[in-house]
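seq:
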Amino acid sequence: MQSGNTTAVFQLESRGMRELIKKLGPDRFDDIIALVALFRPGPLQSGMVDDFISRKKGQSSISYPHPKYQHDCLKPFCLLPMV
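struct:
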């Protein structure tokens, strides 16, 4: 899957998703869940996807807007959904 070989896999077979999969390099099921959740216009345009990838790869640190959010963020790379 890390190579983008997702033909006929629901929600993972579009060209954009395949490119994102190659960029992220998912190595666990939670990564796939996050990819499906993040592959939306809002997260893609806001830079949230790039933040997630850089945190997963250890290229940026996690910061919390307030300590109470530490347990509410999407583990393990802390993205807070705002609804």
